[in-house]
Amino acid sequence: MHSGCFAGTHSRIYVQVATEPKSGLFLKYLFLIMRLGLLILQRVFYVLTAGEWPPFASVAVVVEREGRFLMINRRDGRGYGLPGGYIKLHETAEDAAIREVKEETGYDVQLKGVRDILSGKRKSTRVRAVDVVFNGEVVGGEMQDSLEGKCYWVQLDEVRDQIAFDYLKAIEAKNSVGAHS
Fold first, then answer.
1. How many Cβ atoms are within 10 Å of 85's Cβ, its own excluded?
2. Which of 61, 111, 142, 153 has the maximum number of C-beta atoms within 10 A of its C-beta?
């Protein structure tokens, strides 16, 4: 919030203007440009490999505590997402999940098994990915925001219509993969 004062001969009028800090706006556009670059790169490789380019491998982690879920209000405007991201070349899915949660939320987590697997075209994007979604539990660290967005502990009903990608399906999957009878 910025405030300004207009001084007259007899009175002063204060006006508050709500603006996004310049650094926040810059980060939002930088994030969008990076996502666009990734999309273009994927499409180029798809054409060059005659449609045989594999989807991206990524991870996400569902962390629930006292009926609330750890989620990130994404800077790109796509809504609330689970902490997670792409798996690096020399990294396991488990290591990527732990790293992404730390980078995006500040929390250290212990993984408690695979909750769901999402695959195909991500909702509202052209990116194709296979997401391994883990259950996780906070074991340390302190909540902090990141370039991805602002962290919140939210009740599902508060953000149900604002959840990014297909993460609602993974959140609502009550059992771990392999634990089905």
1. 20
2. 61
